[in-house]
Amino acid sequence: MAGSEPKGALDGLFVLDLTRILAGPTATQMLGDLGATVIKVENPGSGGDDTRAWGPTFVRGKDGQKTDLSAYFMAANRNKRSIAVDIAKPEGQQIIRALAARADVVIENFKPDGLKKYGLDHASLRAAHPGLVYCSISGYGQTGPNRALPGYDLMAQGYGGIMSLTGEPAGAPMKVGVGIADVMCGMYATIGVLAALRHRDATGEGQHVELALVDAQMAWLVNEGVNYLTSGTLPVRRGNAHSNIVPYDAFECADGHILLAVGNDAQFARFCDVIGLALSPGFATNMRRIENRDALMTAMQPILKTWSRNDLLEALHAVKVPAGPIHTVAEALESDQAQARGAVQEMPLDGVENDAVRLLGNPLKFSATPVQYRRPPPHFGQDTQEVLETWVLPKDP
């Protein structure tokens, strides 16, 4: 109909969300952003998703009191309905089965076999619904010697190797500043679910999509992982430096730091022209710069300290040498680029201060089926009655 809102790419898809914390909710929020109906099931005995209580930052109500909408929870739970259901009770299990009968996708992140005792595991639900796509996320996977261990982002970063690469060379191993193992696992889960849905649409056959935080973390070791597999040499911590490209690092100027990412030899030649560094044969190619990394740093750093950040950035941008600032979170999210790209989204929400919440936007841009911001993150159990009446309870004849 002319003038109507475009539908999301996943409009009509029904997702039953049995996840909490970050990896699973990241996946289900992505599906919701793309138009799917997502029903988030939360445990009434615990007050819902653990992250609802993870402060210190909460949305405040009109009375100034904190609500159950922590900033952490809101980061991964928009475009969902929340229902309070105790799956340990037979009546709760019946509700989940009724919703699963209508669902295209079930996503859960219980420990392996954690839902089997309730008859809500993949085998039980798929027996009744052969077309169901069922996704399981766990710390170490459904198989292997560590399958029973709990899954936490910190443990995945440690076990999967990324912490050994992160931090200053002489410092301690460091995790990434956000739960990147969780987030990337959620992204892999989204891809797996969409692939399984394509297979289901072609054949009518559902399947079990299974992944682990640690598996996903190892998969995104990318070049450093393959560097090791190819050479047998362990990668080392380099701070902000790159193992395969030089200079690629944070550098000190007279009034702060800038980033340089000189990706090829022509860029390096132009960089040398700008700062007045002699282009010696030892620095002419990237391979030579890798071999002579320390000598190049010794030659560059005193010169860069004579430049102001803005003057150096302007001079490098003028000759198309990749360089940039190091923003704070505030500078990043308030930048003109962030505003132009919709990096921050404001969603109306009754009953809270300012009648709205501000969230991070979805980075996907579609020409025909744009990302949708339909529903702000829900209060615990706020949609229970609506969901029961719409999708569970039988209609009067």
Short description, anyone?
This protein has helices spanning 23-33, 71-74, 90-102, 122-128, 153-159, 180-203, 213-219, 222-231, 265-275, 286-291, 293-304, 309-318, 329-333, 336-341, 384-392; strands spanning 14-18, 37-42, 58-60, 66-70, 81-84, 105-108, 133-138, 207-212, 248-253, 256-261, 323-324, 344-348, 356-360. It is an alpha/beta fold and 397 residues long.
Looking at this protein, list some descriptive labels:
Rossmann fold; 16% strand; formyl-coa transferase, domain 3; 397 residues; 15 helices; 36% helix; 3-stranded antiparallel beta sheet; alpha/beta; globular; 6-stranded parallel beta sheet
Would you write up a description of this structure?
- By secondary structure, this protein is of the alpha/beta class.
- The chain has 2 domains: 14-220 and 343-392, Crotonobetainyl-coa:carnitine coa-transferase, domain 1 (Rossmann fold), CATH 3.40.50.10540; 248-329, formyl-coa transferase, domain 3 (2-Layer Sandwich).
- 36% of the residues lie in helices and 16% in strands.
- The chain is built from 15 helices and 13 strands.
- The protein has helices at residues 23-33, 71-74, 90-102, 122-128, 153-159, 180-203, 213-219, 222-231, 265-275, 286-291, 293-304, 309-318, 329-333, 336-341, 384-392, and strands at residues 14-18, 37-42, 58-60, 66-70, 81-84, 105-108, 133-138, 207-212, 248-253, 256-261, 323-324, 344-348, 356-360.
- A 6-stranded parallel β-sheet has the order 5-2-1-6-7-8, with helices on both faces.
- The model has no long low-confidence stretch (mean pLDDT 96).
